[in-house]
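Researcher: Re-running this chain for the archive, since the previous output was lost when a drive failed. Same request as before.
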Amino acid sequence: MKKLFTFLGLAAVMVLSLFLAVVTGDYGPWYFAWLVGTTMIVMIAAAGAVMFDKQDEELAKKGIRER
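Model: Regenerated structure tokens:
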């Protein structure tokens, strides 16, 4: 039963993707690039914030920088 639901879910995603491809027409690649680019910018910014926070914690543990 789980495989049936997985198949139906993937089929629904495929139908939605085809519908969006037809509706967007020539602008499809631009929208795709915009969505992927925006997602990547947000993920890179979040990763940078996590790395900065971790480095700040390490410096505070060593006593180099006070919080």
